[in-house]
Amino acid sequence: MDHLMHVAMDTYSNLLDRELFINEWAQERLGFGEPFWRFLSVCLEPSNLFNLFIPLCGIYSQELLTHLLSAVSLVSTLNSFEKWIYPEMRPLWWLRERFANERVSIKPHVALENHNLSCETSGGLPCAHSMTFTVFVLILASFSFVSCWERFVSYRSAFWRCLLYPLIVGLVVCMWLSRLYLATEFLHQCVLGSYFGIRALNTFEGNVKYLNSCRRSSAVTAICILGLLAVAVYFIKLRLNMDPHWSVRQAFKWCPEPTFMRHEASPIFLLSRDLGSLMGLALASPLAKKKAKKSTFWRRCSVLGSLELINYALRLTTPKQHGRFAFLAYEFSRNAIHSLILLKYLTKLY
Hints:
Layout: H1 2-29, H2 34-43, H3 46-57, H4 62-85, H5 91-100, H6 128-151, H7 158-181, H8 187-206, H9 208-212, H10 216-239, H11 246-254, H12 267-283, H13 297-316, H14 324-349
Helix pairs in contact: 2-7, 3-4, 3-13, 4-6, 4-8, 4-12, 4-14, 6-7, 6-8, 7-8, 10-12, 12-14, 13-14
């Protein structure tokens, strides 16, 4: 058994060493597109999907907003739990740990550039950007295609469907390249992130009628159980002499400038954010009974724009200097109220 574990660890180490060359290749060959890679990683990160892009989709359709918010919240929570339970190394951490470890005789001959965006404080597997962005693009593309199919006869050609698939794949691959260029993830973390996102979305779509008809009490109970599970993982790790905040300490250890690190990227914050979004969904349940209200385009723009400006102001006033509990409780409540308003009360304001 020990021999098998030793072989598995050697194979895993060799895999990460080889994947470092992929990150190096991306930084050497893709430097011409750095503004674009930064745009993808900064503007299309999961928090911006929740706070900007998904609400903006409500201008087009309340059904699309509900579907996106439900699916992306569930997928993001799955991602956060995986990183909370078993955080994996990031490229820059792994590279520096290998050179710092005197027991490693063969050092990887790789040089990676450190960016301010490289100082992530959560684990690498699965890539949250790839996972949530893949789900967001798939849902948005499918809704857009169905809408065009119903409204325009010219879009019913198989040509448009064949064109849509490469477009989706191209967008997802660009997100992978963005994360590889910034040395925030290994290639397998990006690929598995998208794969897990697709599988989670398939499961969601197969059970969407049940989830939308779920009673409020049952949904709230499920979210409370998830919260207790997160707390249980914390104490189990302490019991096993494992550091629950290992990824944060790795970031502090190897990030050249501590000011590059963000509170909003820590595993415990991500869990609070995602559980808050799910609690908003639970409080708005059953979603199947929510009916869209007809309104003008400009009316929807003004209502959603006002709501997101208020939400942005609340994000700026997050109490980061008043202790961890206040910080997490505030973000949990803000995300819960934000989701609840988008799903339950938004149409009443139209």
